[in-house]
Amino acid sequence: MSDKPTAIVTGASRGIGRAIAIELASLGYNIIINYFDFKDSQPDDTAAAAAVEEVQKLTVQAYALRGDISRSEDRQRLIDFTKEHFGRCDMLVNNAGVAPARRQDILEAGEESYERVMNINLKGPYFLTQLAANWMIEQKQSNPDRNFRICTTSSVSAYTSSPARGEYCLSKAGLSMMTKLYADRLAEYNIGVFEIRPGIIMTDMTSIVKEKYDKLIAEGITPIKRWGYPEDIAKAVGAIAEGRLDFSTGQVINVDGGFHLRRL
Question: Which of 29, 168, 182, 213 is labelled catalytic?
Answer without folding.
Answer: 168
